[in-house]
Amino acid sequence: xxxxxxxxxxxxxxxxxxxxxxxxxxxxxxxxxxxxxxxxxxxxxxxxxxxxxxxxxxxxxxxxxxxxxxxxxxxxxxxxxxxxxxxxxxxxxxxxxxxxxxxxxxxxxxxxxxxxxxxxxxxxxxxxxxxxxxxxxxxxxxxxxxxxxxxxxxxxxxxxxxxx
Length: 164
Ligand code: SF4
Description:
The protein is an alpha/beta fold.
């Protein structure tokens, strides 16, 4: 899978101190995107799951979890769901950003998509919409984006927001 980068310490991409994988390639093309260099599918660098896991294991100390950001992480759903499964076994939580909505992803029958949804503790969904920009929002750029508790949403059969 292609990554545009790995940040080993972040406090702005989910709860606590986190490692962030920035995936390469994004179909959403949101105007005023802060990371347009992540759009090109051929840019960035190729990593195997094994290489990424080695980095995560070497740098896990003191971390609450891993964040998948982009680009569009669901373009790499099969590989990221495998990483999510392994890092949860290491007692780390998983936050996944996406430009798709939760409902769009739920309706997608591709097994990798569903595995990445299930492998995520929190999903921060929706495109960045500049006219809804709000710099006071936690972890998000615009007010249409939601922080969704995936396990609670699956259990209740409706969207349950984080902390609800
Ligand atoms: S989904 Fe994210 S990375 Fe993709 S264009 Fe929108 S803001 Fe940029």
